[in-house]
Structure formats: structure tokens, C-alpha cells
Amino acid sequence: MNNVFTYDVVIIGGAIMGSSAAFWLSRMNPDLDILVIEPDPSYAKSSTALSVASVRQQFTTAVNVEISRFGINFIKNVQVWLGQGGGVDSLGFQENGYLFLSGSAQSETVLRQACAMQCEKGAQTELLTPDALKARFDWLNVDDIHLASFGAKDEGWFDNMSLLGGFRKAAQHQGVKFLRDRVVAIEGTNSRISSVKLESTGTIFAANIINAAGTSANDILEMLGEGLPVEPRKRTVFMIDAPNAIHPDAPLMVCHSGFYLRPEHNHWICAIVPKDDHRAEKDDFEPDLHLFEDSLWPKLYERAPGFDAVKVLSAWAGHYAYNTLDQNAIIGRHQNWHNLFLMNGFSGHGLQQAPAVGRGIAELVLHGAYQTIDLSDLGVDRILEGRPFAEKAIV
Questions:
Q1: What's the sign of the alpha-carbon dihedral 120, 111, 238, 39?
Q2: In what order do the strands lie in the sheet with 252-254?
Q3: Largest CA distance in the chain
Q4: What are the residues whose beta carbons fall under 8 Å from the beta carbon of 175, sequence distance 6 or more?
Q5: Helices (DSSP H) in the chain: which residue ranges?
Q6: Which ranges in the chain are annotated with CATH 3.50.50.60?
Q7: Which of 285, 227, 209, 222 shows the shortest CA–CA distance to 37?
Q8: Which of 21, 33, 159, 181 has the most CB atoms around it within 10 Å of its CB?
Q9: Where in this chain does the record put each FAD dependent oxidoreductase domain (predicted)?
Q10: Which of 3.40.50.2020, 3.30.9.10, 1.10.1520.10, 3.40.190.10 is the CATH number of 98-156+231-320?
Q11: Residue 318 region, left (φ>0) first, then alpha (ψ -120 to 50), else beta?
Q12: How far apart are CA 376 and CA 382, in angstroms?
């Protein structure tokens, strides 16, 4: 087709990041013509939809703590932020907290340093000795624990798809157009992108382009002869029944042995990073069921004897948009393409970061600088220079 359209902003990817950016841009400047391009508006295989939908302040970099603190405020007050156009009254925030377990002197030092920084930023993270940990969670085995950090306030989980739906509906209410299509080419000269070509619709001219393509972020950059260290990494999540370990008030626990666990009513959700973690095929969403008996169940039982009897009720696999350089987000203007903005590589914590990152990208597009949270530590320059800015608390 030879159709030609022109927009002020074209956003490639309509899941949580793209929809957040669209919401904030249209809120800050209602006169903008904004188009969001999304190949699958069901979002069935998006990282957003397959997330375990949690939020925490327990990060090791200050900017991530600031991002999450705004995200928590947004999640708790979603109706106020999105307004009636979002159609969301509540995200059902379950404030059970997050619990990180340290099993070595080195990781204990990291926990102590991170806790001090988090509290300076306004979090209420507590450090728990093994005795204090056992007193609070008597169902845990603490024999090998050096220290734990616990965020009892403003940490937990929520309804991921209602947040996505709210962003999208509010953006549409504010005039944003969403289009089901796929980007097949991008053209540009003199460090500026001029247009994107779509599989079905034709050519779209845009003053600004935002790459919010999730695990396909690198594919978009390759159309410009560039690249990103972002690739899909598969994570299999298990829903299990453990009749001897029913603790619906338990926090989301991140164990130093490599797994996480949280309650889901009277059941549990859990996952483990595979030992041979590697780039996943884009169409591989088959759960790696062997991981439960081979790797995960022994670690669960070692951590809590109540997991002696366990039944897997269901399992699903999702993909992280994994930043192989430093497992931190890549946010900001691309130095080689002055009207290209990136929000990519969130490595499993994008959902909780979407409210603040969408706002930040909107500020950058409209004003040329961040006005609320300074996200420059997560800028694209470090990627182009191969200069890691590592986030150590990756789950």
C-alpha cells in the first residue's frame, strides 16, 4: 500500500512502556498527534502480560529506588493518576512486602549498603539477623542465612493487565491512536529518522520515534544499522500447592540460592533462573517443566521444610527483555539519532518502572530534559561506550 501518514510521535510497541509513554505525552501536551504501533494488541506473549506483577524499592542503584517509589505512588493511587478515562478504580495492591536473603559475607555487605541508600530515599527497608528473621517467619530455615532485608511497606504485587489497560484507555481518551501493525523498515538521514514503514498500513512520517518494543528492541535498532545488548531470556513460572506450607501473608522472598517465591492465596508462585540461562528463541514460550523437580523443589525444601509435599498446578513461560551489559534499563535519546528515544532492556522489572519511565520519556521528548526524576544514569551513552551501570538486585 502507498498510504502516507504524519504524526508528532510514533511509539513502536504498545505494551506497558509504550502505553505509559503515550499516556504521559498526551497528558502533558493534548495537541500532539501520537500513534502507537503494536503487532499483537492481545499482548498475550508480552513481558507485561506474563509478569508476576510485583513492585519493590529494594534496588542497589538510587535511580531505580526513585523510579519505584513513584511507581508505588502511582499504583496505590491509580484512579487519581489516570482519571476516569483510565477506567481503573484499583490495582488490588497486595502489600505483603519483599524479603531478600543473603548467604555470604559479600552479599551481606551489598544488603547493608543498599538498605542505607534505600532508607535515604524514603524507603522503610529493615535488616533482619537470622534470629530476627526466624522470629518473624518461623517457617523458614535460617541456618545458612547471614542477613536479610525486608520491605514491609510499599512492596508487594498488583494487577498487571489492569495497569496496562488503564494506561491504554486513558491514552486513547486523550486522543492517542493505537494501530495493529508491524514495523518492517525505518528510514533516516543526517542523524534523524524520517519515517517508518509498516507491514500493512504503509509509510508513517514522524517528528519523534520511541522504541518501546520490549524483547524486539534490538530488531528495531538493527533497521538503522545500530544495535542494543537486549535479548529475550525465558523464565518459567510455576503455580504450586504445598498443603504443609500455607502462609498467605508471606512476602515475596528472593533467596540467595537463585529462586523467588510468593503466595497466591493458599498456593504459591515460584521460579528459578536456569543454570544455562541464554538467549531464547522468540517463539519459545514452552515452560521448562523439568526445572521444578531438577532445581527448584530441592531449594524450596531446603529453605522451608513445609515444602516437603508439593504439587505443580500450572506453569507458564515469559520472556525478559534482558540487558546483557548490566541488567539495567536503557532510557533516553539515542546519540546517533536525535529524534529516537529508547525505553528498553528492563531485565524483568519494567512493569513497576513504567509509570516513572513513561513520564521521564515524555519530559525528554517535550522539554529536552528530565524534570522530575533524573534518569540520565540509565542513558544510551553508556551502552554505546560499553560502560556498565550495574543493578545487582535482579530477580
A1: positive
A2: 126-128, 147-151, 98-102, 252-254, 259-264, 267-272, 230-241, 311-323
A3: 70
A4: 26, 30, 34
A5: 16-28, 62-76, 78-82, 105-120, 130-136, 160-173, 217-222, 290-291, 297-303, 350-367, 381-385
A6: 4-87+159-229+326-385
A7: 209
A8: 21
A9: 8-364
A10: 3.30.9.10
A11: beta
A12: 10
Rounded CA-CA distance 379/387 in Å is 11
Contacts of 294 (CB under 8 A, 6+ apart): none
Q: Rounded to an integer, what distance in angstroms lies between the CA atom of residue 37 and that of residue 60? A: 34
Neighbours of 338 (CB within 10 A): 14
List where CATH 3.30.9.10 sits in the chain.
Answer: 98-156+231-320
Write out pLDDT tens, residues 292-342: 999 999 999 999 999 999 999 999 999 999 999 999 999 999 999 999 999
Summarize pLDDT for 230-247 with one digit per residue, the tens. 999 999 999 999 999 999
Looking at residue 6, the DSSP 8-state letter turns out to be: E
Q: Kindly report, residue by residue over 82-119, the tens digit of the pLDDT.
A: 999 999 999 999 999 999 999 999 999 999 999 999 99
Q: How confident is the model at residue 1 (pLDDT cuts 50, 70, 90)?
A: very low
Q: For domain 4-87+159-229+326-385, which architecture applies?
A: 3-Layer(bba) Sandwich (3.50)
pLDDT at 2 exceeding the cut of 60: no
Task: Report the length, in residues, of the chain.
Answer: 395
**Residue 228 φ/ψ, nearest 5 degrees:** -135, 145
Query: Which three cell numbers, joined as nine digits, stand for 152?
Result: 514491609
CA–CA separation, 394 and 321 (whole Å): 13
Residue 127's CB is within 10 A of a number of other CB atoms, namely 18
Q: Which residue has the cell 535488616?
A: 127
Q: In the predicted model, what is the mean pLDDT of the chain?
A: 97
Determine the Cα–Cα distance for residues 115 and 123; give it in Å rounded to an integer. Answer: 9
Residue 258 cell numbers, joined: 537463585
User: Which residue(s) pair with 186 in the sheet?
Assistant: 196
Q: What is the pTM of this model?
A: 0.96
By CB neighbour count within 10 A (0-12 exposed, 13-18 middle, 19+ buried), where does 112 fall? middle
